Structure formats: C-alpha cells, structure tokens
Amino acid sequence: MMAPGFTGSPLDRADRVRNDVEAYGALIADWRARILALDGLDPRMSAEGGLHWHSIAELEGSEELILLGLSDGKPHFVALVEAEGEMFRSPVLWRALSMLPAEDAAIYGTARSLIDWHNAHRFCGKCGSTTDMFRAGWGRKCRNCGKEHFPRTDPVVIMLAEYEDKALVGRQSRFPPGNYSALAGFLEPGESIEEAVRREIYEEAGVACGAVRYVISQPWPFGGSQLMIACVAEAFGDDITLDTTEIEDAMWVTKDEARDALAGADNRRFNAPPPFAIAHSLLQHWVTD
C-alpha cells in the first residue's frame, strides 16, 4: 500500500535545538537557511513542481520564524502568517497537493498545522493574556501567568464498515457531486479507537459493527491538526439508517466498484477521495486485502 499523504518528510525536526536560544539564533543567522514560500496559506510551487524556497535574506525582517527542521544541516523555516477568517483549504491548494511530491506535501502539512495552531492560540487559555512564540516556534508562552502552550493533535477515526465483501462509503453535502469517502469522526473523552469506530458508524449510518482492525494513520493539517486513524470494521448487517445532520448519503460498494473509482474509470459509480487523503489509501487497502 502506498504511504498516505502528508507523511515522509525528509527534514530532521531538530527537537534538540528548540530550547537552545543560542543554537536557534545561529540557525537563523545561517546564510544557507531557507524559508518556505507561501501565497497566503497556500504553497508556492517551484518551476520543477515542488515547494518553492527562498533565502532568509529576502525576509523583511519582522517575521516570526518557525523552525521546520534541518536537511544536511541546512535550516528550513516558515514565517508565521497572520491568517484571518476561515483557515481551511482553497481550490488552488487542492490542485497543488495533487501535484506536490510526497515529501514536499509532508513538509507543507507540518508548516500549515503550526501556522494554524499559532493563529488560534495567540491568547492564553488560562488567563486570557497575550502569548508569545517560543521554543523555535513549537510553543507559546503567556506573558502574564507564564503558562506554556504546545501544539496538539486531535485523534480522528476514519473507517470502512465491511459486510459480505462490500464496504460502506458516505458523502457530506459539501462534497463535490458524485464524491464519496470513508465515514469519520473525532474520538471522544474516555473512548478507545475501536469504540469510536463502532459509535461513529452507528451514529451516521445506523450500521452496528463488531470487530475492528487498524490499517494505517495520517497527519491531517486542515481544520485543526488531526491524526487520522484508518480502520475497517466488521458489520452485522447492511441496513442503512442515515443521520442526515451528519451525512447526506451512504451506500455499499463492491471491490470492483471501488477499483473503478480509484482508477477514475469512465463507468465508475462514484468519485474516490484524492490520492493525498487517507480515505484513498484505506480504499486501496480494502480492495487488495
């Protein structure tokens, strides 16, 4: 199975220098340092089709820099963008992610997750005062009470229910016409992965399931930093009762229908998720398992 999108970054995350102010300063002063080029929150593409990097000398001088990591000792940063309004994804971004090499998509995903987190945590959750970036961009500290805040990842289960060699897929109303994906939902406090898988399938489609098997995971940088945990659950039956506040439609598909969707066949029954989405990897796993 092909590695899921947003994984495989070649950068050394260099945790060892994040608390070392002197070492961090030396990295910023390194003439070899590279800054990830962005258009707003979207990645700027190079002529070769990868991420575009520019010299640290091109900065205006006032930007806060987040250390993404090192490559052959060369530091790579991204400047903190003060994004306003909805920080989700644009059509331009979706096209870029379809073209970026996997390693570049992983780097961008890390940068995007950190930028969104910083923008959402400019004030302390304990006392409400302003926070400042520290730890090379991997944390924020309150000016008033000194509380330290660190980026977090929210666990999300994404799954296929399986019954008699068919898999359950669904769609939300915001999906493009004809697009279906695996069902998904956040883990709740006091809940295991297996319990969350069974609960979400039952809540959204009314399908009761038993055994759950883990397949693969993926970091997902949009709508908050998430860890997508892909699973397959064994369903007890194929009757569907939709919760239309959650999903617009759901249906059972065969492996041949899933193969056609993944291949983009002209006669496909539905459109599969894009290759960089873990739902694509999950469908691939299911049709070949």
How is this fold's topology laid out?
Elements: H1 21-29, E1 34-36, E2 38-39, E3 42-43, E4 53-55, E5 65-71, E6 74-79, H2 91-99, H3 102-120, E7 131-134, E8 139-142, E9 148-149, E10 154-163, E11 166-171, E12 183-186, H4 193-205, E13 209-220, E14 226-235, E15 249-254, H5 255-263, H6 278-288
Parallel strand pairs: 1-6, 10-14
Antiparallel strand pairs: 1-4, 2-3, 5-6, 7-8, 8-9, 10-11, 10-12, 11-15, 13-14
Strand share of the residues? 25-35%
Largest sheet: 6 strands, mixed
Helix content: 10-25%
Q: What is the N-to-C order of secondary-structure elements (H for helix, E for strand)?
A: HEEEEEEHHEEEEEEHEEEHH
| Oligomeric form | single chain
- What is the CATH class of the largest domain? Alpha Beta
Class per helix and strand makeup? alpha+beta
What is the average per-residue confidence, as pLDDT, rounded to a whole number?
A: 94
CATH topology of the largest domain: Nucleoside Triphosphate Pyrophosphohydrolase
SS field, number of helical segments: 6
* End-to-end C-alpha gap: 10 Å
Q: What CATH architecture of the largest domain would you give? A: Alpha-Beta Complex
| Contiguous runs where pLDDT drops below 50 for at least 5 residues | none
Q: Choose one word for the global shape.
A: globular
- Rg for CA atoms: 21 Å
What would CATH call the homologous superfamily of the largest domain? Nucleoside Triphosphate Pyrophosphohydrolase
Strands, count: 15
